[in-house]
Amino acid sequence: MEMPKFEEKYIHAIAMLKNYSKWGILSRTFMLRENSLNIVDLKNGTGKFSNYDKESRDFLISRIYLELFERLCQSIEDLTGIIHSLQGDLSKFQEKIVSPINPQNVLKKLTKEKWNEILRYCDIESLPFDSKDLDLILTVRERNIEVLEKYTQLIEDFINLYWVIYNKLKHGNTLIYGLNQDEVYGESAMFIPAFYNSKEPQKVKELMVTQSIYEKWQNLFDTTIILTGDLVLTNIEYLERLGRPFLIKSTYCYIDECEYEHLKNLEEAYEKETQKYNIKINLEAEISMATINRHIDFYKNFDLGAFIKPSI
Questions:
Q1: What distance in Å separates the CA atoms of residue 193 and residue 207, rounded to the nearest whole number?
Q2: Most buried of 4, 109, 240, 291 (most Cβ within 10 A)?
Q3: What total number of domains does the chain contain?
């Protein structure tokens, strides 16, 4: 397909993928590292938290734990939405990415064939390499997918354990701020409640968090962000190559030095035939004056004395 026709067909997919690559990942990661640094001072009552009592510091620690938990769940929603939307014809990416999906169902339906499609692997039979070269390519691809399958199984297990809590915390339970503390296997643990049963409101699921659990959440979050970003960039490049697939774009498994050098030589040979275009996207939206005025009219109410004034 000629460049103009190809770009026209996939312009929405390119635009949305590039926008997520630039801003989506930043929006998920922003301030989390700062939060993790604050935990040290909160636990010790030092730095800017030196004047806070222990109850207040424990509460703020629980908020930092909860912020990472919520971002991790959001990143899983991002990843599964992107995985779902990268399957099939990428010209349908826009309508698929805005459609609601069940993260667990997306992961359960993943197969090796679907991973091959998402990773944009080329047809092995079309390659002009000998059997030894093809065996190496296939082996690394299979090991890549094995790593991804182990990771997605871990995400499925996380969803099974936590998803009811996540959904309830984002739908009103954030009004319930109480927490219990205890010691679990020698480690201080916090239990953050999530009420989930309207017929039996006394029932509660508790989110247990320790420092080691928090650190494992951080590792899982980092992996999710890295994989999401990698899949997005892979498919942007795939489209900028006018749909030319890859030999092996990224390696998620361990490969030794000999394998690395061998693959590098094979990729150089394969990529000689590749043309790449840097497709630049400017997202613009037409905003009517009626829309602008609706916002302006709302904020006029701010001048009508509708606010409760503090008593102090």
A1: 6
A2: 240
A3: 1
